[in-house]
Amino acid sequence: MAIERRKFLRNVGLTMAGAFSVRLPVVGRAIADNNSWLMTTKQPDAAWMASLYERGKVTTYLKSKNELQYIGMPVGGIQCGTVYLGGDGRLWLWDIFNKNQEGIEPKEVTWNADVLGGGKKVRSRDGACYIAPSKNIRPLDQGFALQLTYGDKTIIRKFDEASWPEISFEATYPMATVHYIDPALPVEITMEAFSPFIPLNEDDSGLPVTILSYKIKNTGTVPVTAAIMGWLENKVAIESATDALHERVNTAVNEKGWQGVSATVRVKTGDSSDFEKKADYGNLCLAAFSNKATVGTIMAEGELTAAHFKLPVSKQTVRGIKEKLTATVTTRNNILPGKTIRTDFAISWYFPNLHFKDIQGEGRYYANKFADAAAVISYVQQNYVRLSHESRLWKDTWYDASLPWWFMERTFLNISTLATTTTHRFRSGRFYAWEGVGACEGTCTHVWQYAQAVGRIFPALERDTRQRVDLGIALLPDGGILFRGEAEKRPAIDGQAGTVLRIYREHQMSRDAAFLQQNWPNIKKATQFIINQDRNGDGMEDTPMENTLDAVWDGEIAWIVGLCIAAVQAGALMAMEVNDTAFANVCKTYVDKGRKNMESQLFNGEYFIHQPDKVKGRSVIGSYNTCHIDQVYGQSWAFQVGMDRIIDKEKTVSALRALWKYNYMKDVGPYVATHPGGRPYALPGEAGMIMNTNPRKEEFPFGVKDAWQLGYFNECMTGFEHQVAAHMMAEGMTDEALTLTRAVHDRYHAFKRNPFNEIECSDHYARAMASYGTFVTACGFEYHGPKGYIGFAPAMNKENFKAPFVTAEGWGTYTQQGGSHTLQLKYGALSLQTLRFQKTGAKQVTVIIDHKKMPASFKEENGFVTIQLDTATRIVAGNSLHITIV
What we know:
InterPro entries: 6-hairpin_glycosidase_sf, 6hp_glycosidase-like_sf, GH116_catalytic, GH116_N, Non-lysos_glucosylceramidase. Residues 494-770 form the Glycosyl-hydrolase family 116 catalytic region domain. Residues 72-386 form the Glycosyl-hydrolase family 116 N-terminal domain. The chain is an alpha+beta fold and 886 residues long. Among the domains are: 142-232 and 284-313 and 326-392, no CATH class; 544-775, Alpha/alpha barrel (Glycosyltransferase); 782-885, Golgi alpha-mannosidase II (Immunoglobulin-like). Helix content is 26%, strand content 26%. The strands form ten sheets. A ten-stranded antiparallel β-sheet has the order 1-9-10-11-12-20-16-15-14-18, with helices on one face. Strands 31, 32, 33, 34, 35, 36, 37, 38, 39 and 40 form a ten-stranded mixed β-sheet that branches. Helix 7 (405-413) crosses helix 19 (734-747), helix 13 (558-577) packs parallel to helix 15 (633-640) and helix 18 packs antiparallel against helix 19.
């Protein structure tokens, strides 16, 4: 959270103290969706609570309920810019021109004008899109339309919200389905939109392309002729091209398997080398995967008529920059009664000139493989069967689960942040990210360490970042890790600890121990750095250092102490794996002392606190006796990587229950009315968990009364909420975990704002990817690739459980029915030797891989059965492993 965002809290937040009243507008209301009622202003009853556990159905947003206007599902490749799929199936936003702007729509909006006498301005990084969600940002004209002929009738309809009586949007990231509904027509029309998304395959998931696949079924009794036309405006060099020097060019392209139009810009005369270096220089391509398509390099203006669907083929059109130049591609099919046709279109882009000041690396990664947007289309078309099959296979695998459908959506969809301008991949292969779109640079360690999704879905990206950046570019001689890479001169203590834990996760998500062995000397230095911050040798970190709440806190702070204990414990485990017994013992000493002292000195009988510095006391900002959302975050992290307890269970659960008692609000309105200064990430009428509360009702609970950071304590930030939900799930507090996750899900209902954009410091905030951690703990998933180990301990539906899993080299589905356990591999490979499941009273274990019995031994301990195969085995996609425990 960089310095710039502080201006909001300094200049706005503190001046709002006393300005609030209970007259804050209530924006929440109960809205019916397909599964239940949104929890807004009412206390959940037993029926509502039970509904949280129901499998339910896909969330489907409807035009008739005014739920389409804010939807913006990122539907381009990961790290390729941002292209949104709208609720009506049109593409919008188009942040692909390397503007590096802050927020999806840089703007200021007025907040609480009726209370504050004119209101305060809230910028994109402070929640502007939470108060006033963006919509209809269309820097270029793009769309599709249908011409349908049956009998003596011909109708023409654009595929947009205004043209259909009903449209439904199925929110199944990474592939969405849109239904265009008109009972008067003899057809059923469905559009599926996606960019290839294949876990473990970051290259094919990082293609600058959007695919729109239309299916039309003839439900009538006579043949119909359906023509679908797509169009795309040439807006290449949208900022830098001038009418005096440049001109737009659309050129027809006819390749094997596809036809389309390439949209470019060129200089009229002279040298073009400087122009070709501009950030927005590049090209676009519109295509149909058909050899029978009709292309037009220019589209006539005006209302659509039959003539637009019969444009003659033109090879090239050149126009001035001030003239509109739009390409078209049209397909035509005759459809017999009862039959269905499918037409696949694609739009690709190529803007390779990505650059950040003072950063080691520039240019977009996709430019290594492709020369232009047309080359992207050729690659996608040539590999379309595989790319679409594997993408759809992942979608089907993810949502084919026994866990609630809404839960599967919310815990996964935040990985769409990778397909926005929050994240980038340089030509060198380096992963680089903001905290949120265009805000707070440097792949910040103290924010990104919360984001569990990337390391589980695309582990190679995280491994490379740990090695190239955290243990490379950012590593100091004493083992400290600069928390923003080149953009910073200091470590952050929470980011340091979280990075060591991520290193352990990245090791676990590897096929072998090469990553750990290669990087161990620097990993050891980074872990020793944490130990060195314990000035008095009691195992509790007490060196003042920056943390994610943008301050340097003094004293011994439970959430930082616990996080450091977890990190050093991870260091000990890695040390044992590389046979560095001496360092493992050093780590063990720190962990043992830290745990003992944390539990005895920082637990107040109900929750964990911040013990002030003995000299400075409470003269500086801190959480002190308040109930802080991250107080047992170290234990939460430990569960993410399958570590044993680092904090006593009874005390930890007591702390979580205190958070539920004091910090969770079924309606945040009354609280924010009396605790002003925070940013608007949850509004009156909405539920959420407040960052810090003051159960002891101290006058100055945070030590000071006028620090600008005080505003943070009164906010609801989804990344922290997801972290707590993940921890509650692991500790058996499933009601609370589901309720908190649902509160976030409901705050982002499409009636109110974009479901795919969880906001903190700007749009598509990285910390929100902590939501995947709640899925991990719901499955009780543990994995260690180099050891060939996998385990499951479902938190709910244990007698009939089904969920996806992702490992270092493959992914598939795990099912558990009583004593029967099955791992069905759908993609890649999986090497195993040890498996662990919940079970008591086991007498016999049988392991079968594709009808072949495997010799194995087992032992039962603490309610779990651990199975050891006599020899390591490797299964590949299409294979299944069946275990029966009786």
